[in-house]
Write a structure and sequence with these properties.
Layout: H1 15-18, E1 71-75, H2 85-89, E2 95-98, E3 101-105, H3 115-119, E4 127-131, H4 136-141
The structure holds iron/sulfur cluster (SF4) (2 copies).
One iron/sulfur cluster binds next to helix 2.
Length: 151
């Protein structure tokens, strides 16, 4: 059996962002129901950029979890070497990269886990965690200097 339309399998997290107050929770979705991620024909979906895809209402791409974060990663383009480590390791595919160039953070889906900061190899790091409330410009102005290697 398949079900289409706006029936997100979700708990209350992000429900306000979805406008989904009347919809069912994840534990209320009927067993065997298929919730397609995209509207219409998705045969060529792998070749479309994320912003060109027609996401179904209940696809997590259309929901934001930004309110879960206490800390956020801030990206410093001036230091980044486009190694793509952060893109590979982010557990939420929240690093935006095109043609092997790091572009920034998808703050709608980033959960602030800090993995990207841990794996960034530059000195100083090109990604650092800051308080969620801090402006990115302010964070960039406080960036640490290169650390000298101990002899
Ligand atoms: S903090 Fe975590 S979820 Fe956010 S971009 Fe970094 S690795 Fe991804
Ligand atoms: S891990 Fe660091 S240096 Fe590598 S692409 Fe990401 S931000 Fe840039």
């Amino acid at each position: 059996m398949s079900m289409t339309g706006s029936v997100p399998g979700t708990d209350n997290r992000g429900i306000r962002e979805l406008g989904a107050e009347e919809k069912v929770g994840w534990d209320q979705v009927q067993q065997g129901v298929v919730l397609p991620s995209f509207e219409g024909d998705a045969a060529d979906i792998a070749h479309q950029k994320a912003e060109e895809r027609h996401y179904a209402d209940f696809n997590s791409y259309t929901a934001t979890v930004a309110s879960w974060r206490v800390l956020k990663p801030v990206y410093n383009r001036d230091i980044c070497i486009d190694c793509q480590n952060c893109w590979v390791w982010c557990p939420d595919t929240s690093i935006i990269s095109r043609d092997k160039q790091m572009l920034g953070i998808d703050y709608d889906h980033c959960k602030g886990c800090g993995v990207c900061v841990e794996v960034c190899p530059t000195n100083p790091k090109s990604l650092l965690m800051f308080n969620e409330a801090e402006e990115n410009e302010e964070a960039l102005s406080e960036w640490p200097q290169k650390e000298k290697k101990a002899k």
